[in-house]
Design goal:
The protein is mainly beta and 751 residues long. The chain is 5% helix and 46% strand. The mean pLDDT is 91.
């Protein structure tokens, strides 16, 4: 099924009076973006997701000329982006699969269940998991500014207000509202011994799932509000010196939820109410918005965010200008594209499939949830929410990210209308937000590593045992390591949107630009830069793996290394040259009309980007500190050998990294390799070339022919090598990040 998209715009401009101009515009965009449809007539076909997206953007702008030296602007905007994510099996009648009516009626937006296999069909699920949600991000904004010219001063004062919301409901929690996993254990000769002749397909036919989950959720209404006030003054001290001075005050709230159905943090000092039931202290509790004195919003963001700015421009002589600037800027505190659904707003039912090691099944597909589906309870469970399981929670102590930016450059005019400049550009970022990766504050403290793996993995009596409880507190036995965690009654406590990151950027920028003359114009720039931070966050891309958590949550400064987006060298070039042939040109200037149609009006365009590769993120494929120590990742040790390999570029693709440069770090240790290694991945060299031909057919009728070559030299841009040490493909570059050469032809008519 092809993707479809359409857009329409309506705009009305009106001069209300001779001093008041206004315009109103509305944009409507709609797209239908489908995934794969391998088996069109089957509701269980994999990857059969569809994203139905709309954009409604409305804005009103007013310009008021109050007097010859005063101009005011007032604007208002409202934007909304409804996103409906579903599968082609939406509305599927679950009763056709033999499920009981009580289960069928409990699923509010049914789709074909996600069915996962251990051997028969690995990698993709029957049905499509993670694609059953409806949410609507929307924003309202208001801004007003007054510009005033007073002598040598150019003043501007204004206000800025925004309200950003994200309402919606997730129907499947990333797994599906109903999901089942099948393996071969129930059909083995001996459930405890692999390779005993079992089959996951046989388990499906018998109706014995190894895992069954049912997901329920409630709608969330979330909001962040922002307001700011600013003043800016451009002062022309004299004809050669101009100063720019400004100050901005900002305030941004944390995330709030209309019904206060929101976990705003985790209180590490709280004495959980489970303590009274067990007779022993139980540390830690979630913080619900507005409950027990907890705040109504996430984070502890700086209320008064002051942002001073200063700049200058000084004309040293007729052909030389010096510029400089410094300022403090605040970054948004949060960044997410779908509603945050905390524990309590969702509920997952996972019945026990067997009580005797998968010899005897306790549930069947005919009735996979004999006790029914657990319903979301909101804040009703109080501090018992999350006990025994892992949680992802906002950092209650986050203050907000601020950046110091500074620059200094010298610009010089050369002959032939060419201007050159050399600049230093830098920044220092403090309390940088970590969207991902998360920080597990329930990681085992390294001071216990001396006990050894045997002692830490020993199964002991669980003092936090609650019969029928979830996860950890529902187990009579746990490992000794679990009891030594800071919060032993909980699983991993992953803190998100923390401000414990920091960054440093320094660069030298050289630039040359030629204004259009004799048919030629160009712009070229070279940047030499260094970029450091302490997080491998993000979703990953062509240049890095992304989302690699820290080795040791107790020592985040040890994560300091070149950033995953550190491109040391980058050269860019763009040019346009009108060929000197044809009528009124240097060559064939007296050509007749037909000759001019053939040789005149040709324009060549070039766009080139060359960039060095990006640092490689290295981790071990097997995290020996992950299973019960709670370490998010583990890096290997360096052997002293160089990680670089020899040979030409093509030969190195199968072995970009030398595995002999590393050795496996055992459990209860941290590898001594830095978060990113000096060796960088493949670089990029891309040329886009086009040639345009302009025709003048009649005075009011013209045409333009275009021939465009994207990636004109068909140069591949290879993705970053596999950085998982211990993987069979470690160090290999196995995929391409760009498209092959595209050539497109176009004819455009003007009349």
């Amino acid at each position: 099924m092809p993707s479809k998209a359409g857009q329409g715009t309506v705009k009305l401009d009106h001069r209300i009076t001779n001093w008041w101009n206004a315009n109103l515009s509305f944009l409507r965009y709609h797209s239908n973006e489908p995934g794969e449809n391998w088996f069109p007539n089957s509701p269980g076909t994999p990857e059969n997701w569809v994203l139905d997206r709309r954009v409604d953007a409305t804005q009103v702008n007013n310009t008021l000329i109050l007097n010859p030296t005063t101009v005011a602007t007032v604007r208002y905007g409202f934007n909304r982006f409804p996103n409906d994510s579903y599968t082609r099996s939406l509305g599927f009648n679950l009763a056709l699969l033999g499920f009981p009516s009580s289960l069928v009626s409990a699923i509010p937006r049914p789709t074909f269940p996600a069915v996962n296999f251990h051997n028969y069909y690995p990698g993709d699920a029957m049905g499509a998991a993670g694609n059953n949600a409806y949410y609507t991000p929307y924003s309202r904004s208001f801004g007003a500014a007054v510009s005033k010219f007073i002598g040598r001063h150019s003043l501007k004062v204004g206000v800025d207000w925004r309200s950003i919301s994200d309402d919606g409901i997730d129907y499947d929690g990333g797994r599906a509202s109903l999901a089942f996993d099948f393996n071969d254990q129930f059909t083995r000769k001996n459930a405890a011994v692999a390779g005993g002749g079992g089959s996951d397909i046989a388990s499906l036919l018998l109706g014995y799932p190894a895992v069954a989950t049912g997901f329920q959720s409630t709608k969330i209404f979330e909001n962040v509000r922002y307001e700011g006030v600013f003043i800016q003054d451009d002062i022309r001290i004299n004809p050669r010196l101009t100063l720019n001075v400004g100050l901005r005050w900002e305030h941004e709230t944390g995330l709030t939820e209309r019904n206060a159905n929101l976990i705003v943090g985790f209180d590490p000092n709280a004495l959980n109410s489970l303590s009274a039931r067990l007779g022993i202290p139980v540390k830690g509790a979630v913080e619900f918005a507005g409950k027990n004195g907890y705040p109504n919003q996430t984070g502890n963001y700086t209320y008064n965010k002051m942002s001073p700015r200063f700049g200058l421009a000084y004309q040293l002589n007729q052909k030389t200008i010096i510029r400089g600037g410094w300022g403090i800027f605040w970054a948004p505190s949060l960044s997410f594209s779908a509603p945050y659904t905390p524990e309590g707003a969702t509920a997952t039912t996972t019945p026990n499939p067997s009580s005797d090691g998968f010899n005897t099944p306790l549930i069947q597909l005919s009735n996979p949830f004999p006790g029914g589906l657990v319903k979301p309870v909101g804040t009703a469970n109080g501090d018992a929410t999350g006990l025994g399981i892992g949680l992802t929670i906002f950092d209650r102590n986050a203050k907000g990210t601020y950046i110091q930016q500074f620059s200094f450059d010298i610009q010089r005019e050369l002959p032939a209308n060419i201007a050159v400049s050399a600049a230093y550009v830098g920044s220092r970022t403090y309390r940088l937000m970590l969207g991902t990766p998360d920080i597990n504050i329930n990681q085992l403290d390294p001071k216990y590593f001396s006990l050894g793996t045997a002692a830490l993995s020993q199964s002991v009596t669980n003092p936090y045992y609650v019969p029928g409880g979830p996860g950890i507190i529902g187990s009579a036995k746990v490992t000794q390591a679990q009891l030594l965690r800071p919060f032993p009654a909980f699983g991993n406590l992953n803190i998100r949107y923390s401000d414990q990151n920091k960054a440093q950027y320094d660069s030298l920028v050289l630039k040359a630009q030629k204004r259009l003359s004799q048919g030629l114009t160009f712009l070229t720039a070279y940047t030499f830069s260094k970029n450091f931070d302490r997080s491998s966050g993000g979703t990953g891309s062509d240049v890095n793996r992304g989302s690699q958590g820290p080795q040791n949550a107790y020592n985040l400064p040890a994560e300091w290394a070149p950033s995953i987006v550190d491109a040391t060298h980058r050269l860019s070039f763009t040019a346009s040259y009108e060929l000197p042939f044809g009528r009124n040109k240097r060559f064939l200037g007296n050509a007749n009309r037909f000759a001019d149609l053939a040789v005149g009006g040709w324009i060549l365009n070039f766009v080139n980007v060359d960039s060095s590769g990006y640092p490689v993120i290295l981790t071990q494929n097997s995290n020996n500190n992950g299973s019960y120590f709670g370490g998010a990742s583990q890096r290997p040790n360096a052997t002293g050998a160089s990680p670089a390999t020899s040979g030409d570029f093509g030969q190195r693709l199968a072995g970009w990294i030398n595995p002999a440069a590393f050795s496996t770090a055992p459990a209860l240790t941290y590898g001594n390799v830095a978060r990113t290694i000096p060796l960088k991945g493949p670089g990029m060299a891309n040329w886009d070339i086009s040639i345009f031909k302009n025709f003048v057919i009649y005075e009011r009728f013209r045409a333009q022919f275009r021939a465009e070559g994207l990636n004109a030299f068909n140069t591949p841009y290879f993705r970053s090598p596999n950085g998982a040490f211990g993987s069979s493909s470690f160090g290999q570059v196995n995929s391409q990040g760009n498209f092959p050469r595209f050539i497109q032809l176009a004819l455009r008519l003007y009349f």
